[in-house]
Amino acid sequence: KVLILDFGSQYTQLIGRRVRELNIFSEIKPFNNPPEDLSEYKAVILSGSPFSVRADDAPHPDLSEIRGKKPLLGVCYGAQYLAHFNGGNVEKSNTREYGRANLSHVETDNPFLAKVNTGSQVWMSHADTIKQLPENTQLLASTHDVENAAFKFDGEETYGIQFHPEVYHSTDGKQLLENFLVNIAGIEQTWTPDAFVETTVAELKEKLGDDKVILGLSGGVDSSVAAVLLHKAIGPNLHCIFVNNGLLRKNEFSGVLKQYEGMGLNVKGVDASARFLDELAGESDPEKKRKIIGRVFVEVFDDESKLVDGATWLAQGTIYPDVIESVSATGGPSATIKSHHNVGGLPDYMKLKVVEPLKMLFKDEVRRVGASMGLDKELLGRHPFPGPGLAIRILGDITPEKVSILQEVDAIFIDGLKSNGLYDSVWQAGAMLLPVNSVGVMGDERTYEKCVALRAVESTDGMTADWVNLPYEFLQKTSNDIINKVPGVNRVVYDISSKPPATIEWE
Ligand code: XMP
């Protein structure tokens, strides 16, 4: 496997994913907390960073256990770090070096750059530049503005590149990573979804034996794939609990429950709608609504878990981005924008051991693993849906009537996206019920009814997002359908805000 030492670049996770797309397993660790045992890592990559090597507080890890002992690749800051502390010279660049550039000179004879073409587009993102390389290095590639774009240290497999091979805009970036990892480091490309399923199921069998495991299903991709993996390993000893909090999409509870049963899972559906809606009555504060839902979920889940006699494990669908220790530029934790993201987090007294079979996978890998186990395409392609569900899409207080209005509106929107072939090109979509009545006219009658906002965004991870340019004809038809078919709604608007500065959900 490959070790990626993170210096805090926004692209570090992309390096991890790109390496895995080559069917090579990768792990990301913070530069200031590297693994003690390096023996299993066949190569090391140093990421970019928001820091400057010239700053006093710049990351300055000890690489003596790595340099010359394993193939090493420094990307951007990683390259500048290698240059700067080995006799080279890094300075602030005079020209803007962001965005696309083209390689004007490439040493294609060097295996590191095999099949990388002169003229190939590369992606730059740096404020510093390597003015002079250390003496014991060989220059491998340049662009028009950046002479020292790629270099190698003599007598060791240590390379530096100024551009970012991990972003898609670097057209030969993946080739370059393959050259480094496969041709130079000699790593085998055996890490495939099928191989992951096989080894994970074997490990789970070994770890869990005849123990009973409880898992909360949400209808989402992660918990579903985790359930199927565990089911393969321990069959009926996996007890799944699917809670209806009354804030799911229309027909979601019964539909998804049937689907789970059809997959052979040992699943119990618990309809706690009334309890959730009761506890939420009269509450309009978004954070308090989230807290109530989180608490009631734990209570319901706890009651149900107690009914599973002798259970000793709790399984969770945690994925890799949730567990990567992040290096933040400020050193401190980032501000809480919304108290997310996991409804859940079970109380300590449950004393269950935790098993997280997807803990090392990125989201797209979870989907591929799901597909390799034959999970339904529709289930794997589902949009993300927040744990507190429609509660954070009903602005203000929640009543059963508002929930059912929003369920109808949402269903018309989502079904429309599906029947028009738009669903898969949208990352997430949904409707918001606004605490606003406005005047309308239907027939000869004046109406004074609710307004809904439709939102559809494209994103890769929900951290940033942009609104989707849905066809006008589609919006027109959807708006008509909603106003004609859903009593109580007389106005539809479309949200055209990006994140940042807006967020995806309205609460
Ligand atoms: P925001 O609104 O923060 O949403 O831009 C980013 C992503 O997170 C989801 N989201 C939540 N998920 N519990 C969840 O499980 C929450 O409280 C929550 N709030 C937002 C949102 O749907 C989007 O995918």
From TrEMBL:
Catalyzes the synthesis of GMP from XMP. This is GMP synthase [glutamine-hydrolyzing]. The active site is at residues 76, 164, 166. Homodimer. It comes from Croceitalea marina. ATP binds at residues 218-224. Keywords: ATP-binding, Glutamine amidotransferase, GMP biosynthesis, Ligase, Nucleotide-binding, Purine biosynthesis. Pathway: Purine metabolism; GMP biosynthesis; GMP from XMP (L-Gln route): step 1/1. GO terms for molecular function: GMP synthase (glutamine-hydrolyzing) activity. Its EC number is 6.3.5.2. The gene is guaA. Residues 191-382 form the GMPS ATP-PPase domain. PANTHER family: GMP SYNTHASE [GLUTAMINE-HYDROLYZING], GMP SYNTHASE-RELATED. It comes from the Bacteria.
